[in-house]
């Protein structure tokens, strides 16, 4: 049929621009449809798909990447075991945000777990060959060498969180100190007299900031922070259980606990129930993140809401800016801190 003849026949491959012209939309809209983005109307999607079929357009990612001297891929690196990846909503929310934002950028996502020094070295060798255009690094510990390696080999990178207050690599973070302070102020205002905390691993800056917020709220209330009321854990449910047992051994009469993650709060809740301590009657409980875990606990958990999915989206936006401006970077690197807020539920 003459009306639907493949325009590319006899004169090379049809282009993205030709598809856009045939469908009556912009080039970016065609890219979104091809990459499966949900941010396109059904009518537009049908028009683009019809134009693709009529023209015989086939995306040539490899050719485009070679022409631009790009890998056309971004690595999302999580230096944690699979058990944490699938057990903690934080990681799935970050991945969801990253994936949603990359859907509009026409880039491949490479998800990488690093669990051992050998895996870290293998990934470092992979990066040194510049097989990705940029790296998103989640769950950063203070001694993690990857951020410095990325700077040395000049691969754009963005961290979820920071290694310290003087982080040199671009990052997107939450207001961890302010969120923790709001949580503990809430417990003090509810008349709780002995407020304990279960911290995350203190080689992570986010965990130290949440501990700082806990201490700041107590100081503001005219109270001294008792070291016996703070136990470090590892952001896991089992870590929350171990820490809660230790707190009850140290201070059986405690009447409130701020856990630095919802997952640790869930572990603490189990131990409190086993010990016959009612939540919130005997012990008020507050978490951090406001994940699905908080909403489904019994009773529902008061928690500090951080915009985890938006953090993932923001990381991609910052990284894309870094990739595009890699040749003209200045000393001022992007540093974005997203606000938090306390969501009060029955546990407190």
Describe it:
With about 350 residues, the chain is α/β, with parallel strands linked by helices. The chain has three domains: about 60 residues, lambda repressor-like DNA-binding domains (434 Repressor (Amino-terminal Domain), Orthogonal Bundle), CATH 1.10.260; about 140 residues, Rossmann fold (3-Layer(aba) Sandwich), CATH 3.40.50; about 130 residues, Rossmann fold (3-Layer(aba) Sandwich). The chain is about 45% helix and about 15% strand. The protein has 14 helices and twelve strands. A six-stranded parallel sheet has the order 2-1-3-4-5-11, sandwiched between helices. Strands 7-6-8-9-10-12 form a six-stranded mixed sheet, with helices on both faces. Helix 2 packs across helix 3, helix 6 crosses helix 14 and helix 9 packs parallel to helix 10. The N and C termini lie far apart (about 70 Å). The N terminus is likely disordered.
How many domain regions?
3
Average pLDDT, to the nearest integer? 87
Termini separation comes to: 70 Å
Number of separate helices: 14
